[in-house]
Amino acid sequence: MPKKTKKKDKKSSAGVKMYKGRLDVARSGMGFVIVDGLDKDIIVKRDNIGTALSGDEVRVEVKGYSDNNKRPEGKITEVIRRKQSEFSGRVEVHPHFAFLVPDTDKMPVDIYVPLHLLNGARNGDSAMARIVEWSGKNKNPVGEIVSVLTNESLNEIAMQGLLVENGFPLSFPDDVMEDAARYPEGVAADEVKKRKDFRGITTITIDPVDAKDFDDALSFKALRGGWYEVGVHIADVSHYIEPGSALDKEAYHRATSVYLPDRVSPMLPERLSNGLCSLRPNEDKYTFSAVFTINKLGKVKDTWIGRTVINSDRRFTYEKAQEIITSTSGDYAKELLLMNGMAQSLRAERFKKGAINFSSQEVRFQLDEKGKPIGIIVKESKEVHQLVEEFMLLANRAVAEFVGGKSYKDKPVPFPYRVHDVPNEDKLKVFALFASRYGVKFDLSSAEQISMSFNQMLETVHGTPEQHVLEQLGIRTMSKAVYTTENIGHYGLGFDNYCHFTSPIRRYPDVLVHRILQQCLDDKIVPVKQLEAQCRHCSDQERRAMETERAANKYKQVEFMQSYIGEEFDAVISGVATFGFWAETVEHKCEGMVSVTDLSDIDHFEFVEGEYALVGKGTGIRFAMGDEVKIRVVAANLAKRQIDYMLAEMPQRPARTTSNRASGRSSGNRSNKTQTKHKRR
Question: pTM for the whole thing?
Answer without folding.
Answer: 0.82
